[in-house]
Design brief:
Blueprint (H helix, E strand, L loop, with lengths): L1 E2 L16 E2 L24 E5 L2 E4 L1 E2 L5 H4 L4 E2 L12 E5 L41 H10 L5 H11 L23 H15 L2 H19 L9 H18 L5 H22 L9 H16 L7 H18 L10 H22 L9 H11 L22 H11 L2 H10 L16 H8 L13 E4 L4 E8 L2 E8 L6 H5 L15 E6 L2 E4 L16 E3 L23 E7 L3 E7 L10 E11 L3 E22 L2 E6 L5 E6 L2 E9 L4 E6 L14 E19 L7 E5 L5 E7 L2 E7 L3
Helix pairs in contact: 3-4, 3-14, 4-5, 4-6, 5-6, 6-7, 6-8, 7-8, 8-9, 8-10, 12-13, 12-14
Length: 733
């Protein structure tokens, strides 16, 4: 992959997917293996025979295939405990020769249908999906009272009806008035008609429903060809029909019902009983629309009750995978996307079936806390890892809903903080204008709103820490992660893939100041290089998944990075992470341990110790969207990083004579990447062992420091911060 047009000398252009071209020959950045994409040929078929079963194996790329001459495949097979069985491997290409077989137990579930009933009081009545006729009087009264401000936003959006729906090439929203997608028109018009009962509004609502229904039935309508979007289409149509139903005559109802049946069958074709990716957005996004349809057509469609029972069983599998601590493994853009579907599942079962699944565990309240922990000081960035689009917005309604169901004052306050955030430059799937209807439905003004005051968050399921540093009006957010790609809970319950979105960045950290991501990560890319993150590389290579377009589908648990120690007192916090197992084998990493020390209010220290089998170049990587300038070279390297009004300084204590390089990062942008070019700072030394000791100051003041030997052969790093001496004990060299 390479830029479509070579930039002029000294010009640094945005690195956007739309500006790149793909070719089968150099120059450029190698992308792959990605069989089937852009002409990349499929790889030879490999099948496993175990007893009478035949299973096709799937390629599982770790990024070391070229160096090792080996490729991994995975397959789910049933092996009896009662008697040994042979596993026969059959390849269609003689160049593939089996080397070894490793067997891991898997708890991957298969959904079992569970009983579901439509509440008796909802039969033969509409609306029924998110609220019932008994709720209408209160909903209508609120638009002139407690919900007046939200209602004004809905009416303002309807004033934009004439604007064409447009996005940037990266699927981001434009600056200026919000533009309505077909589904926005259907939901906004339908809800406006339901609340106002005005005849003109009713006509507009039915016309927009008619128009969208016809689009969805077209064979070439693109959203219906993508599983998640097909489910969103069916959810929207089901909701709109539910709201229109009281004002339709029987012939119109029958006509619409037949067409909705056709849409539902097309959505079911995306699902079927074979899929097992229940906890992924591709499944929940597709199936939540079908679930809404099932409750809508409970006694009319011959398979509605069958499908609902199956989806209840599938959602049970999802509930088993959600960690109590609320950890989420990917970027906040994906948090918003996935929780849109998860929360709708909860509400459909709660209201339509009378089953309150909110009470099953503490995940929902703590999921809102995870979102709070990752929130940048100016509330516009999601500061976390895993294919992240850092600029996010649009989820205020989710926190209002979580607050309404869990009575969480912090979730309610988070909804308030997010409701007025700008939408320009945000992925359009996160900020659909119809979100204002969800805000209207789930905002409960009588709830207490109290912002979380925590300055430290730890989510052990994924090994992720967040800290809020500095003073109240000059706050920074720092996060650090090392753990299972999807978190331990999901792995233990059979979801062991990375959904493709995890990054090889264990031990990495991010830092946001105000509205700037001063220390950044890779963002959404189609080549997941460890070097694009703030962690260690060796000869430019790194962790399992390094250089692959997507995260490996399977990583065994003995290859997870892990938090091995965590201590905290009044002035000092420190964590230790063993990253050794996460690195590719050919690099010969015998030990790689990273410690992060935190000295409030504005200092943190990274200490890395590395042992290799052979001599290689050890590289310490840092990334920023700002400018990097050298302050001093002797006696120790010192740098300043500046982005607008935000800045920090970095001091390299070890190695004492470190070499360094800097420049713009070279990467393969995924289509949602906004194009920002980050700069890297790479400190490096050559050897089969080494350590890096780096001090980062947010207020650009280091004070005095001294590294000296201790009596027990350890070393002491003495730092003088705000007139107080802090001593950190480091192991012997």
């Amino acid at each position: 992959m390479r830029p479509r047009h070579a930039p002029a000398a000294e010009a640094i252009l945005p690195r956007r997917f739309v500006d790149m071209e793909f070719a089968s020959e150099p120059p450029g950045i190698e992308v792959g293996p990605w069989p089937g994409w852009r002409g990349i040929p499929a790889l030879p078929e490999v099948k496993l025979h175990c007893g009478s079963d035949e299973v096709e194996a799937r390629y599982n790329f770790w990024g070391d295939e070229r160096e090792t001459g080996q490729v991994r495949l995975i397959a789910l097979v049933a092996i009896s405990d009662e008697s040994p069985q042979e596993i026969e491997i059959r390849c269609t290409d003689d160049r593939l020769q089996p080397v070894a077989v490793e067997i891991y137990s898997s708890a991957k579930p298969h959904a079992v249908p569970m009983p579901v009933k439509l509440r008796s009081q909802l039969e033969n009545t509409h609306p029924r999906l998110l609220f019932s006729p008994a709720d209408l009087a209160e909903l209508r009264k609120r638009h002139q009272g407690t919900h007046f401000d939200i209602w004004q936003k809905i009416e303002k959006l309807l004033d934009n009806w004439h604007l064409p729906f447009e996005l940037t090439p990266e699927s981001k929203t434009l600056a200026g008035p919000e533009r309505l997608h077909d589904m926005d028109r259907v939901v906004l018009a339908g809800f406006h008609a339901l609340i106002t009962q005005a005849e003109a509004s009713r006509r507009r609502a039915q016309a927009s429903f008619d128009d969208f229904l016809q689009r969805a039935l077209q064979p070439d309508y693109e959203p219906m060809r993508i599983d998640t979007q097909a489910g969103e289409c069916l959810f929207t149509l089901s909701l709109a029909y539910d709201w229109l139903w009281p004002n339709l005559d029987e012939s119109a109802r029958a006509r619409y019902r037949d067409k909705l049946f056709e849409v539902a069958e097309r959505v079911w074709a995306h699902l079927g009983y074979e899929r097992e990716d229940y906890a992924q957005a591709h499944f929940t996004g597709c199936s939540h629309g079908l679930l809404a349809f099932c409750f809508l057509s409970w006694n009319e469609h011959p398979r509605a009750q069958e499908w609902a029972a199956y989806l209840r069983g599938a959602f049970e599998c999802v509930l088993q995978m959600l960690p109590e601590d609320g950890f989420f493994p990917h970027g906040i853009n994906l948090w918003i996307y996935e929780h849109t579907f998860l929360l709708r599942y909860l509400e459909l079962f709660r209201h339509c079936a009378g089953e309150n699944l909110w009470e099953r565990n503490a995940y929902w309240k703590n999921a809102s806390q995870f979102r709070q922990a990752s929130l940048s000081p100016e509330a516009q960035l999601g500061v976390t890892f895993g294919d992240p689009q850092f600029r996010v917005s649009g989820d205020a309604w989710m926190h209002y809903l979580i607050a309404a169901r869990t009575q969480s004052p912090a979730a309610h306050a988070l909804g308030d903080a997010l409701s007025e955030q700008p939408t320009a430059g945000v992925d359009f799937r996160s900020v659909p204008p119809r979100r204002r209807v969800w805000e209207y439905l789930f905002y409960e003004p009588q709830l207490i709103s109290s912002p979380a005051r925590h300055t430290h968050f730890y989510f052990p399921d994924g090994g992720q820490f967040f800290w809020r540093l500095g003073e109240k009006n000059n706050e920074s957010v720092l996060t650090f992660r090392a753990g299972a790609p999807l978190g331990l809970r999901r792995y233990e319950h059979g979801e062991w893939s990375g959904y493709g979105h995890s990054d090889p960045c264990h031990g990495s950290f991010l830092l946001a100041q105000a509205d700037k991501l001063l220390l950044c990560g890779s963002g959404p890319v189609y080549r997941r290089d460890t070097r694009l993150n703030n962690t260690i590389t060796i000869d430019g290579r790194g962790q399992v998944g390094d250089s692959a377009p997507w995260a490996p589908e399977f990583v065994p648990p003995d290859r997870f990075a892990r938090i091995t120690d965590f201590r905290r007192d009044e002035t000092l916090q420190w964590i230790e992470a063993d990253l050794t197992s996460s690195y590719l084998d050919f690099l010969g990493v015998e030990s790689l341990v990273r410690r992060l020390y935190l000295l409030r209010p504005s200092l943190f220290i990274i200490h890395d110790r590395i042992e290799l089998k052979h001599e290689r170049e050890l590289q310490w990587n840092l990334h920023t969207y700002g400018e990097i300038s050298e302050i001093s070279r002797a006696p120790n390297l010192q740098f300043q990083i500046t982005d607008g009004e935000q800045s920090l300084q970095l001091l390299c204590i070890l190695p004492e004579k470190a070499q360094w390089r800097t420049g713009f990062s070279d990467f393969v942008p995924a289509y949602p990447h906004a194009g920002e070019r980050d700069r890297f700072l790479q400190l490096h030394k050559t050897g089969n062992s080494g350590e890096f000791l780096i001090v980062i100051s947010l207020d650009r003041q280091f004070g005095k420091w001294e590294l000296r030997a201790a009596e027990d052969q350890n070393r002491i790093l003495a730092l003088f911060v705000n007139g107080q001496e802090h001593r950190l004990t480091l192991e012997p060299e």
